[in-house]
Amino acid sequence: MRIFITGGAGFIGSHTTRILLERGHQVTVYDNLSSGRRDLVPKAAAFVRGDLKDQKKLVAALQGHDVVVHLAAYIAVGVSVERPVEFAENNVVNTVRLLEAMRAAGVRRIVFSSSATVYGVPKHLPLREEDPLGLQSNPYGATKISAEAFVAVYQQLHGFDATILRYFNPFGPNELCDPETHLIPNVIRAALLKRPIPLYWKGEQVRDFIYVVDLAAAHAEVIDLRGLNYFNVGSDTGTKVRELVQKVTDILGYTVPIQDLGQRPGDVPANYATSEKLRKATSWRPRVGLEEGLRRTIEYYRQLLGA
């Protein structure tokens, strides 16, 4: 199968590209490298440096592909609160541009990278796909709801096959955002350098952490699905942030002081998923537990930092 990945030079995209190649697919990565890195793209993948705003180039690049995996998006929740217009343009309008380009190129299947944020503040846990979408506490979540809606519209109007994956909290190697706003890389970097670990809410938030290789594998499992599908992709386990920090310091064998950053607008107190629906529909299972995933991630950053 010929697969077209937007944002394939990024954290999740680079792992997804590698897994799809390992499974015998032909992969084209389309990325403007605004946050992705060319060196993260496996050599066996074709690479096109392009922007989703460039409709002519996008339509030409899409020709002959069977399915699109759409990962290109701004992702920092805190930044979305400060720059909502940029997030709406990049995450929503560019998704519609992609859908229109797919229609023009005759590509009728998409796997869309969504987020657990669409559920808002959960009324009960674990979250299931049939739970209602919630009132959003940040613009990032609002863009994901909007983009999901457009994907569903194209499925209804134009006969697309569309699978929407709602990610929980991925972590692992290749996460190289600048500035880095995500919890686990910031915790690990600080701990390796023996600097205070920055925490909001004193680490009382509960999150569902999924190792990036397991998350990437979910894309390979759903590319053949027909119709309109929604799946949570998580570990089925909620972990307090302070407990995660303890696991990191236990692995390292020493403690590090905490830097209390107070409260942060846009955060929800707790969310974690059940991925039972995805497990029943495919052969996907999370293979790497939190502790093993942290060990692998610590080793990655240890080499990266020379620590």
Would you mind describing this structure in some detail?
The protein is α/β, with parallel strands linked by helices and 307 residues long. It has helices at 11-22, 55-62, 77-82, 84-105, 139-158, 183-192, 212-222, 241-252, 276-281, 290-305, and strands at residues 2-6, 26-31, 46-49, 67-70, 109-115, 161-167, 169-171, 197-199, 206-207, 209-211, 228-233, 239-240, 258-260. The chain has a domain at 2-171 and 210-236 and 274-287: NAD(P)-binding Rossmann-like Domain (Rossmann fold, 3-Layer(aba) Sandwich). Strands 3-2-1-4-5-6-11 form a 7-stranded parallel sheet, sandwiched between helices. The mean pLDDT is 94.
Would you kindly provide a brief summary of this structure?
This protein is α/β, with parallel strands linked by helices and 307 residues long.
Biggest sheet record: 7 strands, parallel
Low-confidence stretches: none
Helix-strand category: alpha/beta
Computed over alpha carbons, the radius of gyration is: 19 Å
Quantity of strands, as a count:
13
Q: Approximately how much helix is present in the residues?
A: 40-55%
Order of helices and strands: EHEEHEHHEHEEHEEEHEEHEHH
Mean pLDDT: 94
User: Briefly, what CATH class of the domain at 2-171 and 210-236 and 274-287?
Assistant: Alpha Beta
Quaternary arrangement of the chains shown? Answer: single chain
**Second-tier CATH architecture of the domain at 2-171 and 210-236 and 274-287:** 3-Layer(aba) Sandwich
Q: Note the gap between the termini.
A: 41 Å
As for the CATH topology of the domain at 2-171 and 210-236 and 274-287, it is Rossmann fold
CATH superfamily of the domain at 2-171 and 210-236 and 274-287: NAD(P)-binding Rossmann-like Domain
Gross morphology: globular
Kindly report the spatial arrangement of strands forming the biggest sheet.
3-2-1-4-5-6-11
User: Per DSSP, what share of the residues sits in E-state strands of 2 or more residues?
Assistant: 15-25%
Q: Helix segment count? A: 10
